[in-house]
Every structure is written in C-alpha cells, then in structure tokens.
C-alpha cells in the first residue's frame, strides 16, 4: 500500500500539471452514481462480487476523498475511504483503462497519554483538553456504562492512554483507548483493551450498556473487521458488522431504544432496517426476509420485534448482518453489545496480565515524569456529527 500512496503522491510531484482535489462524499450518493457522474465505466461496480458491493455501500456521508487529475481535468486516480483501514482505489492502468481495487489506508499510529483533574464534566473537560470529540466519545464508550460519569466531581482524576491514527498529516479515524483510569471520590476504576473488548484489572468483562443482542441463540458466522488480507483471494476485505447465522423467519429485535430511520431495500444489504439511538449510535439490520409492522419515524423499545431473518440482497444464505455505527462510522458491534459476562482464563488471562502491567508502567512513568498532555489539534472531521 505504501507503494500505491507513494505513486499517488509521486506522480503529483513529478508532473506539476497533475493536481489533487479533496472532496466530500455527499449524503445518499452511491458508488454507481459517482462512477456514472464522473464518466468512469459502471462495469467497475458491476464486476464487484457480493462482499465488495456490500462494502461499496458503506461509504460514509461527509467523508473526505481525494481525486488526482491531469491538466486536462481527466481523472487519473481516486481514493475513497471505506473504513479506518480500507479504501477504494480507482486508477488508470497502462492501457488507460480504469481499475478498481480495495487497498489498505496508509496511516501512522501515535501513542498518547492525557491526564486531567476534573473541572466541569468528563466529556467536556476531555474535549477541552484535547479538542477531540472522538477521544471524548471513545472514553465514554470504553467504560460501557460501568461508571456514571455524572457522579464525577471537581478534583476527580481522568487518565487516558490511547492510540491515535494520522493520515496525510492529519488526525484520522477512530481512537482506541488502551487503558483508562477514572477516579470518583477517591475510588478509582480502570479498564483495559484486550482482544477487541474492555476488561477490568481482573480480566472480567466490563458490563455493557445501550445495546442488546438483536437475535436469540445464533452462531456468529462472520466477525467485524476494518481490513483483513484474504489469503486465498489475495486481496483485502472488510466486514463492517457481525453476521449471525439463523434460519429464515427468525425474529430480529431492536438492539436498543430508538427511532426507525430507514425501512426498505438497499443495494447489497437487501431488506434493511436502520434505527437511531441516543448518543450518536445507530444500528443496521440487513438481508431481512420481511419486516414487522414498523414504519420510518416510529419509536421502538429495546427487544421489540422489527423484522425476520432472510437472505435478501447479496447474501449466500439466511443470516442477520448487524452493524453498529457511531456518528455514521462503523464500530465493532461486539464492543458495545451486552453479552453474558465472561472472564479471561488460561493463556488469555496470562497475556492480559502481562499487557496491563506494561500499560500501567507506561502510564506511571508518564505521570512521574510530569510529561505534558498531547498538543491540541484540529480534528479531522471524517464523519458527520449529530
Ligand atoms: Zn455481514
């Protein structure tokens, strides 16, 4: 991937006549319409397979994408991010024909530590200190409702050890909180990120909030990934949700209280229901066989029947595709869905204990050395704010 981006930038440098434009993806625009509008053959879309078409429908509204043009205003290359890790790359090959591939996003990772003493509220203070609403939201999400931030008072402590991505010189994508410590009335609560989930210092799952599993007993047939190299297909794939295998007709329930914002068919995902929840969360239920008696604008309760499992759209067998979004950006559903409480055991537990002692040491050194907080930066708005 380094090579591709380098090519992208090099060709820009070598030929002064080339120019890069940064544009914003319009709400509701589709890849197919985009290709048509830019006189790029629509066959690029039609030759995509099932999963890639599904992915192509995941381009988030308001995301920034780059277009490289020659001096005659002809499009040479386009980069459209699909997730933090993966992007669509459209380019002209040697024969001057357009090609489309999915390639990893090239970015750097920075480890950062932010500490503060509470003045107003946890969210406000973290935002004020970092200028990053992404960080403030990631903090709230990481505790999964296991602390009541409203109980925090002036003088309480917050420490966040996190990973920030940077792309083309700017902040990029979501933030992963690796360790967070919050002190409320001299009681401290720590959480640690391990294997896609948050645990307390004893390796016990953090109690989850907001969302419940949308389906009864069902096996997970595909997990969430923002980019994974497929060893047989020899190319990159992403899956921005969790698939639950279940027979056609199995009831699908709303994962949380919310408002129905979409009921209908969508390319790739077939019959789809979308629900808006509080705090910028929304959920998507796809490949449904049919809908329950619901309509757009209707309020629903957690656990309320909304539809039935099916195999509509680009699907090889009956399953529920369940997606969770924060401000239109896909996150791992299993990181916010309530699951039976579990505890790390055996080798996992050993690895976990090693990891958290490292994290604690890093944070302790930082605090002892009195190192400053990361610089405030202009946030890279790569998705819509509600
Ligand atoms: Zn899926």
UniProtKB/TrEMBL annotation:
The keyword Signal applies. Coiled coil: none annotated. It comes from Campylobacter cuniculorum. This is Peptidoglycan DD-metalloendopeptidase family protein. Pfam families: Csd3_N, Peptidase_M23. Keywords: Hydrolase, Metal-binding, Metalloprotease, Protease, Signal, Zinc. Residues 23-105 form the Csd3 N-terminal domain. InterPro entries: Cell_wall_metabolism_enzyme, Csd3_N, Dup_hybrid_motif, M23ase_b-sheet_dom. Its cofactor is Zn(2+). It comes from the Bacteria. Residues 238-333 form the M23ase beta-sheet core domain. Residues 1-16 form the signal peptide.
